[in-house]
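Worked example 3 (structure in, sequence out).
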């Protein structure tokens, strides 16, 4: 059974196609993405109107490319999954409207799914089905959450989340501070490779004995980087950019991995999945690998292409729902910009 996935929650128009095997295995056939990130770069963040318009222009060409790449016919598609939330209202609307049009024209069932659950589902395209229980660290541009996953189609519970900025947001803000391009994750990752992560002791948010065990905070870290840079400038000192990037990155990776591993131990879970755009970070996956190996936890991190927004992850989540026998969403499905992660499918 072929499942089509459509993604348009932020600034990536994604169309993915997967094949759901009789044994429940999900095989990736196509993953086409058109990004409007360059149009937002000069604003230092995503401009909602610009994103919606770009989705509108990119949707049909991206769909055509995906169908061609997969070597399939649209009429052979079994069902259509689309991101219903969370995300930007106008951006989501383009994807959901397109999905409804395809579903109606092809007379196929429609599944409105959760973007965040999709980020976790992306991993199954690379590493196969998830165990019955696992923990997911979801770190992206808009979210940073620790999740208990008991079946991708069944139950996702939030154990903790950021109380202020998301991890990706912190990367983007610190990059701006250091005059690096937007989005900030990739340039900081690259620059940090030439720096020393122990050079500057930036704070680790919410790691005190009385702090919430599984929540995160990155806004203090960002402010601390800003103050440090200001002090250097005032003293007429040069800014050791690579050391600042590496030390900031170390603080983020340290907190994220420490809390995720602690949750695994507390809850007796032996598999950790890291997903979302920030999972593409080399130090985060490197440190997680070291610490998981020490703790006897199996670590799963999808390749960078599957970490950032794409349609294949939405198709994968749709496939898991179809495999689990989930009912399709109604054809008057609406978008839910603030959809909580626990709502895997919008009915
Ligand atoms: P959400 O999924 O929460 O709605 P989003 O879809 O905008 O947000 P993603 O596309 O999953 O987020 O991720 C984008 C974020 O990932 C950006 O903040 C970007 O800076 C960050 N990012 C990408 N690559 C890296 C990297 N190598 N290191 C750190 N951060 C990265
Ligand atoms: Mg993006
Ligand atoms: Fe995302």
């Amino acid at each position: 059974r072929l499942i089509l996935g459509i993604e348009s929650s932020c600034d990536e128009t994604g169309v993915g196609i997967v094949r759901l095997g009789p044994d429940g295995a999900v095989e990736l056939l196509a993953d086409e993405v058109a990004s409007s990130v360059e149009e937002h770069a000069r604003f230092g963040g995503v401009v909602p109107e610009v994103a919606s318009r770009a989705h509108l222009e990119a949707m049909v060409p991206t769909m055509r490319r995906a169908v061609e790449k997969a070597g399939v016919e649209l009429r052979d598609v079994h069902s259509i999954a689309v991101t219903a939330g969370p995300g930007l209202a106008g951006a989501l609307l383009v994807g959901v409207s397109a999905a409804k049009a395809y579903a109606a024209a092809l007379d196929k069932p429609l599944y409105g799914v959760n973007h965040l659950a999709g980020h976790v589902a992306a991993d199954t395209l690379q590493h196969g089905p998830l165990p019955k229980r696992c923990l997911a660290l979801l770190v992206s541009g808009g979210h940073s959450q620790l999740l208990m996953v008991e079946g991708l189609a069944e139950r996702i519970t939030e154990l903790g989340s950021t109380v202020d900025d998301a991890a990706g947001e912190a990367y983007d803000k610190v990059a701006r501070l250091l005059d690096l391009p937007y989005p900030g994750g990739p340039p900081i990752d690259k620059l940090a490779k030439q720096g020393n992560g122990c050079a500057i002791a930036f704070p680790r948010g919410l790691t005190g004995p009385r702090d919430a065990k599984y929540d995160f905070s990155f806004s203090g870290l960002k402010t601390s980087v800003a103050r440090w840079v200001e002090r250097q400038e005032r003293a007429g000192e040069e800014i050791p950019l690579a050391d600042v990037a590496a030390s900031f990155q170390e603080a983020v990776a340290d907190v994220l991995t420490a809390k995720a591993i602690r949750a695994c131990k507390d809850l007796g879970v032996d598999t950790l999945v890291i997903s979302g755009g920030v999972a593409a970070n080399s130090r985060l996956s490197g440190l997680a690998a070291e610490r998981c190996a020490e703790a006897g936890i199996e670590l799963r991190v999808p390749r960078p292409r599957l970490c950032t927004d794409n349609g294949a992850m939405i198709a994968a989540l749709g496939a898991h729902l179809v495999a689990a026998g989930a009912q399709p969403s109604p054809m008057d499905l609406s978008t839910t910009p603030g959809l909580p992660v626990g709502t895997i499918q919008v009915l």
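Notes: The mean pLDDT is 97. The pocket of adenosine-5'-triphosphate (ligand 1) is lined by residues 9-10, 87, 115, 140-143, 168, 171-172, 183-186, 189, 276-278, 280-281, 308-309 (CB under 6 Å).
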